[in-house]
Specification:
single chain; 128 residues; mainly beta; four-stranded antiparallel beta sheet; 0% helix; 47% strand
Length: 128
């Protein structure tokens, strides 16, 4: 059974930084892609960032581009999300997700239903 465990969430003032980590119970290099999604109160879950585990190409939502950085460490089975210049609108529960493979030509790293496994989420709260 694959488990993804997030850590690093918390309360931070606007302009501050946080680093989220996601530890996978199986070899991270065996995944096709891993990503971070977030869900703010009363809103749908949305894509934040993702990385292909082979090659390391990264993707970001426009609202976090230039402020967030996703990285992978296949040897340690972890994916991290460095969040800088945080804004109150970044407040959300952040979820780590892993995709085992690409299914079909329309597969999109930004689409949450492409992912096979999810963590339990970690709360990030940014105060103004």
């Amino acid at each position: 059974q694959v488990q993804l465990v997030e850590s690093g969430g918390g309360l931070v003032q606007a302009g501050g930084s946080l680093r989220l980590s996601c530890a996978a119970s199986t070899r991270a290099g065996s995944y096709y892609a891993m990503g971070w999604f977030r869900q703010a109160p009363g809103q749908e879950r949305e894509f934040a960032a993702a990385v292909y585990m082979t090659g390391g190409t990264t993707y970001y939502a426009d609202c976090v581009k230039g402020r967030f950085a996703i990285s992978r460490d296949n040897a340690k089975n972890t994916v991290s999300l460095q969040m800088n210049s945080l804004k109150p609108e970044d407040t959300a529960v952040y979820y780590c997700a892993a995709a085992l493979a690409k299914y079909g030509s329309s597969w999109s790293i930004r689409r949450e239903n492409e992912y096979d496994y999810w963590g339990q989420g970690t709360q990030v709260t940014v105060s103004s």
